[in-house]
Specification:
single chain, 420 residues, alpha/beta, Rossmann fold, 6-stranded mixed sheet, two-stranded antiparallel ribbon, 11 helices, 17% strand
Length: 420
């Protein structure tokens, strides 16, 4: 049975290289198509791939082809049938391959359709997003590593050659290989001394022993002082170092004024935010806090699906957030971010308390705090209080979401990369 071995450099993944080249070449069109695709799907479905269509006119490339008709002067070299001045009849016109009549007003609508994988779709989706005002106190998207000693190996860079270890290896090898010949030489020398003591130093047996001794000495001397098998190199491996760390607080209002439509918008916003964080940063904690009159720290399942409801006291969530920060996330070693979603309806006397908590107790500890107000046609008490917070601190941002279609634009505005 015949067997074919593919020894090409690209191998069976050759098409992957072409695919990456295609994605880089039509990056602008793909990003536009991804943005249009997002508006037509749920936020919870962001992790799956997407079929992207690019108009055929955007894929056109310059090519060489026959020019239009008309009177032209052309020199045909090496033509034996005609001489200078002869006239050549024009070829009869006709429809070419694949041709056909078309209306002057017709427009080509063919599009190129291909499938983006989940990873490719997420890369394009989050390409221009980042946590704002990111400080390098201890935060990094890629885990940091350092070189650490990991014993010795038999091959490596000559600059990492360990001389002492190599010499020890050579000594051990020489002792092991020459142990037998040395023992045989000692026995032959002992037997030769006995013959000399007996006065038989010139006997044939003595001559044979002398020849054997010389042969064993040559064999021992032939053992190389150091061999390539003896070389040992210091081995160093990448060891992860304690990398930076960040925490994102998600605060959501689940009071009675937050009906299902508002909760659905808030849930979608936080799902998008959570997906963005887990995609962009490998080491980041997410704390979910839901509140009505009382705030609770919950897991992801309860945060999105619990049906508990009640009145509205927003300061309870802010107080709980501050307690968690002081207890588990010291600002000296953590980068702290927060996002809050609410309809803005709050107990009138509690809004000043929220403003005070933010300005004095929370904003000094965090890098960024984003507030989104959902389906509030007119500014509510919480919005008015937070407007003063925005004026007092650059670490605070606020936006309004009226419909599902506003989620993505608001999210991009809140978490857009800032150009230095």
């Amino acid at each position: 049975m015949s067997q074919l071995v593919d020894r090409r450099l690209s191998g069976k993944n050759r098409s992957a290289v072409n695919r990456q080249r295609f994605l880089r070449r039509f990056k602008g069109q793909i990003r536009k198509a991804v943005s249009e695709a997002v508006s037509g799907r749920g936020v919870a479905d962001l992790e799956r791939g997407e079929k992207i269509s690019i108009p055929g006119k955007d894929l056109s490339e310059p090519i060489f082809h026959h020019g239009p008709g008309g009177r032209r002067n052309i020199i045909h070299p090496g033509n034996k049938e005609f001489v200078s001045g002869d006239k050549v009849d024009r070829p009869e016109g006709g429809a070419g391959a694949g041709g056909g009549s078309a209306s002057p007003d017709s427009e080509a609508l063919d599009e190129f359709v291909f499938e983006l994988s989940r990873e490719e779709f997420m890369d394009f989706f989050f390409q221009d997003l980042a946590l704002p005002d990111l400080v390098k106190k201890q935060l990094a998207a890629v885990p940091e590593v350092k070189k650490a000693r990991a014993g010795f190996v038999s091959s490596g860079n000559p600059s990492n050659l360990h001389v002492v270890r190599s010499m020890k290896q050579a000594i051990g090898r020489r002792l092991a290989i020459a142990a037998g010949p040395r023992e045989a030489r000692r026995e032959a020398e002992t037997a030769l001394d006995e013959l000399i003591e007996q006065g038989l130093g010139a006997s044939p047996e003595a001559e044979e022993l002398r020849e054997e001794i010389e042969r064993l000495k040559a064999r021992i001397a032939a053992v190389p002082f150091i061999d390539t098998w003896d070389l040992r190199y210091a081995n160093r491996v990448d060891q992860p170092t304690p990398s930076s760390q960040a925490v994102m607080f998600c605060l959501m209002d689940v009071s009675g004024s937050m009906d299902e439509d508002r909760k659905n918008i808030a849930k979608r916003f936080f799902m998008l935010l959570y997906l963005f964080l887990t995609k962009s940063y490998a080491r980041i904690d997410v704390v979910f806090i839901r509140h009505h009159t009382v705030a609770k720290e919950v897991d992801e399942e309860d945060f999105f699906h619990s049906r508990e409801s009640g009145g509205t006291v927003v300061s309870s969530a802010l107080e709980l957030m501050r307690e968690i920060i002081l207890e588990r996330y010291p600002s000296a070693s953590w980068n702290i971010y927060a996002a809050q979603a609410s309809d803005g309806d709050n107990w009138e006397e509690d809004s000043p308390r929220c403003r005070q908590l933010l300005v004095q107790g929370i904003l000094p500890l965090v890098q960024y705090y984003a507030y989104v107000e959902i389906e509030a046609e007119e500014p509510q008490s919480l919005w008015r209080a937070y407007t003063q917070v925005k004026t007092a601190s650059r670490r605070f941002a606020m936006q309004r979401i009226l419909t599902l279609a506003d989620i993505y634009p608001v999210f991009r505005e809140l978490f857009r990369k800032k150009v230095a």
